Amino acid sequence: MSAPVSIFDITLIVDSICQSLILHDIQTCRQVNKHWSSMFKPHLWCHPKLTATTNLTDDKVATLLAHKRWIRSMTIAAMHIEKISALGFTHFQELILYDQNFEYSYEGAPVSLSAIVSLLDNNPDLRSLEIDLNRYHYEVRGQPRELSIALMLAIARHPSLTRLVWHVVEGHANSDFARCLLYVCQQRPIQELFVIQKAHIQPYCTICDGNCSQADYYCGSFSYSDEGFLERLPELRALKQKLENVSMEQLLSERPLAFRKLWLPFEFEGCYLPMLKNCPDLQEVSVDLAGDEGDEVLEALAGCPTLRGLDLVCGRYDMDYAREVQRFTQLQNVRIPQMAKEMLQGVFDSLRRSSHETLEVLGLNISVSPEDVVHVIQSFPNLKEIDLTTVRIYIQDNCRFPSGCYVPDAEDCTVDDCIVRHWDESQMYRPDETMSEWWDHWTKAKRFMHAMSSVYVQQRHKHVLQPMFMRFMYPIKAYMSQVEAFAYAEGTGVWTNSMGRVLTVADAKRMVDAQHEEVERRNEQQREWQRERRSIRYGADSVWEESQRYQFNEYDEAEADEPAREYVIAKSRNRHYSLRSKQPSPFRRPFKK
């Protein structure tokens, strides 16, 4: 006889089911009846995403307002920030503000600073904030804006923010940026700080249809000494005086830092040592160890009793990784750069001696051999994940694999089914690249997964191995061109009869071919434009001469194969032998005896 099940148990069951369902499945399940609809509604509206392809009409705004009480997290593209800020949301717990780049970087009107700041001030329960904005928000027409300063001041007065992810445009972060941000985080219980360099992407040039080499840009460095900033932000003057009158060591030693997870670039190098010495609860860290203070930083990290995660990817080229890893015990998360097989084996031996029972996540380069991966799975009994950047290998005790994964030697399973649909939350670095570059990543990853599957199946017959599955971590949707992305979102073009369907490898191949054709078309237009310009400037004959200049003729082969001539210098007047039969020039200076 089965035990009675209450409505509260059903609610918990539905809640656990919804955690593993995608949005389309949730929409299908909630159509069963009104009671189930009310159960699925919190999961359906907990995290809406307003991308650059979203047309935020009045009907959609009304729908968002009707379900405002369910929304706890929101991803907002730059063009929608001001409209969402004006709606008065007050229950956000997570906020992601970003620029969605396609084959070119998005360049629009900069978002009002008051709109961004009000989103933070009006949501006192906000726990996580992610900023991923392009250059035009930091400076307009070469003039700097106070975006960074305004954000830091808003963070300093926020009561509950504990996680900050900031993708900073290259060239903007400097030592002043590091000092200011760390001091602001010290005033509040920020537990997770990720500062990631955002690479420059060429903006689209409307004059020459995107082919302009003058369109590259660079962002100005951070500064809090601008008089305009001081006039518009009254709180900045007190912060400026504090940072200028007190050294960084004294600032960071005033009170303990609450950091548990850190990801900081090279620009923070001057703050590494005083900061790490005052982080009693530090658990995971990723800093640049290639500087002059790399040894001191590692020594300070070795003194952290709670450290469980270590990233050595940015270490020096001459670092003894095996010796450095052995200084740490009970590590759970370790990331290692690409290295020779002998050095890699030494690192594995050190990890086996120091963190044999505790290691759960290991980050490697995808150039590692499948045999080494199988050796790692055998060596660490509690290992759960191997991160190869583009490919992730998951190890688990049971044999119930989730959907959308590649299981070696499994029936009805192809490698094309393992592509993720969205970026994983743990992937801090997300490259902005084209579909051709995605195809290169996919080709290399597919070759590795096939080889990994073959080696794993062979070794499983000889040794007892835990079940594992693999996933390709770069979603197709993130690499689509602007035309394809809007067509996919609106259900037009080739997507007319496939609204909302999952993208496949065949779709990616078609988009890669279309991109190559577009590149060839633009190159041909560029060559035609150059020929017309040369024709107008030098005349029609110069165009023919230019086309004939690089053409191969029968003399090229003879000249290429002809041996070097031996020049014989005559004794008298240093004349070449080819000039002996010729009469001397009357203007030549006579030989002086």
TrEMBL record:
Highest taxon of the lineage: Eukaryota
Protein's name in the database: F-box domain-containing protein
Species whose genome carries this gene: Podila minutissima
Lineage: Eukaryota, Fungi, Fungi incertae sedis, Mucoromycota, Mortierellomycotina
